[in-house]
Backbone:
């Protein structure tokens, strides 16, 4: 600002020297007034408002409602399973086994219903050729394979395999299959037991309920 005032004063000041009568060595200086320099304030810029990010709503999985209709079939394409299902109660001795009907899979009706997102549905079948070995190919399954449970009213529930494991030989009780309490609490799971009467060990397959 001082530089601007100095330049303006040099440009605007008029110096008039008037000699007085008493002699040339005495004089008067008349200075014309210079208008004051007015400093102009810079205009404040209004900031551009930032765009408000739009939140993407979370994706909520939906599941087929639980049906109380009888279970009709189980289909596991990659294990050559397409068989009827019959309901069995918990035996008095608490030991699980395959159904005595050839080519039929047992659904243990003390466990959760298929489609229950808070339970574990439990099934069993022969895995060694007895009763046509309905679960003989369970060891060939791998993570991501599909298990479909069909009901008589047309409802169907799909489960995705997440575990294939071997159990020791001998009797199998519900706790061996993740069903230690009545109703088999779980997180929308299904458990298949492939019974092997030869003593070489049973097969345990677990699946997770898929949305749909």
Residues:
């Amino acid at each position: 600002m001082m530089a601007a005032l100095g330049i303006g004063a040099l440009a605007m000041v008029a110096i008039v020297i008037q000699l007085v009568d008493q002699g040339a060595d005495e004089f008067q200086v008349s200075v014309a007034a210079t208008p004051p320099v007015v400093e102009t304030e810079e205009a404040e810029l209004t900031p551009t408002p930032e765009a408000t990010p739009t939140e993407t709503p979370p994706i909520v999985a939906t599941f087929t409602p639980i049906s109380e209709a009888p279970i009709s079939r189980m289909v596991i394409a990659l294990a050559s399973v397409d068989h009827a299902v019959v309901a069995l109660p918990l035996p008095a001795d608490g030991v699980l086994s395959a159904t005595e009907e050839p080519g039929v899979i047992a659904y243990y009706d003390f466990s959760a219903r298929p489609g229950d997102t808070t339970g574990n549905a439990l099934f069993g079948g022969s895995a060694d050729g007895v009763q046509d070995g309905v679960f003989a190919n369970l060891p060939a399954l791998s993570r991501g394979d599909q298990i479909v449970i069909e009901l008589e009213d047309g409802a169907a529930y799909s489960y995705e395999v997440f575990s294939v494991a071997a159990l020791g030989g001998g009797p199998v009780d519900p706790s061996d299959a993740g069903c230690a309490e009545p109703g088999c609490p779980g997180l929308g799971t299904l458990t298949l037991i492939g019974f092997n009467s030869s003593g070489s060990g049973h097969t345990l397959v677990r699946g997770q309920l898929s949305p749909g």
Q: What stands out?
A: Residues 2-31 form one domain.
